[in-house]
Amino acid sequence: MAQSNQAFRCVNGEIKRVPSELPEELGPNSVLLKITHSSLCHTDILLAPYGLALGHEGVGIVEKVGNSVNSFKIGDRAGAGYHRGSCGKCKYCMTGQDIWCNDRLIYGEGDINNGTFSTYFVADETYLHHIPDTMPSELAAPLQCAGATTYGALRDVVKPGERVGVVGIGSLGHLAIQYAAQLGAEVVVFSTSSTKEKEARSFGAKEFVLLNEPEKITKPVDVLVLSGAKYPEWSRFLQKTVLARRATLVPLTAPQGDFTLPSVPLFFEGYKIHTSLVASRQVHNEMLGFSALRNIKPVIELFEFSEEGFK
């Protein structure tokens, strides 16, 4: 391909825009996306020292398609995410759970010269996602990972009328509040500071409790979403007056250290753990439609798409 491509990578401890090769020929099922917006995720920060082409939350315009592509055309707006490929034949792929495919291709595990902090991004057409017309690109970009991760986890466990607790309102937490509320749950936010109550309620929370006072909750929660920088004090949270019996723990983040739970309340209260990496393709598309329909928006800050913007 004749297009000139540049990618942002970590070079000698600094993020630099450097030349990056594109495939000589676009594969039959591949799509060339001209990136217009890309969102920064904590995963990018963790992986930057390894020198890969950064970015996995991108939105852009289709500029070229392979000769077998039939779901995208030149000029379409599309998003590219964390999950980039799978075998298509295993038990996971055949049941819509392609994110668990043993041969999956995800950001950081392969495709290291292809990132959304680049001029162009090359994607398999089935791992590219149409962006709803009503959704601005700058809001769609963070949803390609953060939205897919949060919605994918909650849709599996949250039922209308249940009480859902969210620990931490930053990052994935503010999306978890919105998704849980729009899925019909009554949301309780646990946070470190009372100054965050107004913001939490603006996202859809019905109750606000300080993280160091979980016993002040009015009624126990059926689902506890963990989206903070550290895990809560389990001895205070794994109580049936805070976390209802048979409740589900949903860790969305992986703070440093082990995820260690006391065994006695885990068994005697019947608590369950539901892990989720990021949504499979079908759920990713569902998330975008749901977000547009329910007006779910990430809180963003805009920066120039340049080396200066990374500083």
Task: Explain what the structure shows.
With 311 residues, the protein is an alpha/beta fold. The chain has eight helices and 15 strands. It has helices spanning 42-47, 137-157, 172-182, 197-203, 234-237, 263-268, 281-294, 307-310, and strands at 6-11, 14-19, 30-38, 58-65, 77-80, 83-85, 105-106, 120-124, 128-130, 163-167, 186-191, 207-210, 221-226, 243-251, 272-273. Strands 12-11-10-13-14-15 form a six-stranded parallel beta sheet. A five-stranded antiparallel beta sheet has the order 8-3-4-5-9. Helix 2 crosses helix 3 (172-182) and helix 2 crosses helix 7 (281-294). The two termini are 31 Å apart.
- Please give the radius of gyration in angstroms: 20 Å
Largest sheet geometry: 6 strands, parallel
What distance lies between the first and last C-alpha atoms, to the nearest angstrom? Answer: 31 Å
Overall outline: globular
The tally of strands reads 15
Neighbour order of strands in the largest sheet: 12-11-10-13-14-15
Q: Which series of helices and strands comes N to C? A: EEEHEEEEEEHEHEHEEHEHEHH
Strand content: 25-35%
Tally of individual helices:
8
Mean pLDDT: 95
Poorly predicted residue ranges: none
